[in-house]
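Write out the 3D structure for:
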Amino acid sequence: MKLSTFLTKKEPILLDGSMGTQLEHLGSEMGGQSNLSHPEHVLKIHQHYAECGCDMLITNTLTMNRIFIEIHKMDIDVREVNLIGVQLAKQAANPDQYILGNISSTGVMLEPYGDLPESKARQAFAEQAALLQEGGVDGFIIETMMDLKEALSALRACKEVSSLPVMVSMAFSTPEKGGRTIMGNSARECATALTESGAQAIGANCGDIDPFQMAKIVSIMHIETRQPIIAQPNAGRPKWFNSRTTFDMDPARFSEGIAACIQNGAKLIGGCCGTSPDHISAVVQMFKKHQT
């Protein structure tokens, strides 16, 4: 079954959890560079999520676009890191699990707030999307976007080079005042603009909010679009402890927050920073409990 058809049939749809914080726990760098330096760790994490019963696995290619790689002076090849990222996810997946190619920010603010022309960002996103498609993904998920303009640029770039489904998820700093990203974009504005530009699913991930606050964002988006809503919250709000960012929401409480997101209209649910296979397994158990 094609992913576009699957999105219209099954509900809810289970995504995986955090890759970055799981890599950190294994002693690897957080980011796509681990596809090259520690592929065995990336594969292991994908396998653990696949064993949880996820419907979709997300590639470890979050910011592996040419602009992000170059400004951070990473000694890696954009083609290699993206193709291996897809290969590792596919190697872990079961036959009935889909692979989403992960795309995120360039790490540079677009004009007029920054120096990056929108055309250059779009070119970088199109290059990455083409590589992910070459690797064999079933669709794209554009995540952790704080600027609606950049999210739209990535969405349009994907659609220029591929006919595969494209999902877009924004990172919100607060659920107040209609939900706001760090750039001031509201949940309503994001849902409307992304729907009009052809996103097959729209939602929220990461940010500075917990799962219950994300449920408020979901309720706003659910009013504004008929497209499936994504909810991938962190394991609680980020906290600074012992010189590092931590997330301390346990799996049981996290699954309660996911239930609130589903009640408010989320169809695709998963986890972001601080979540683990234990958090995703708790969500699976919550599904089973509600089905009995």
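The mean pLDDT is 94.
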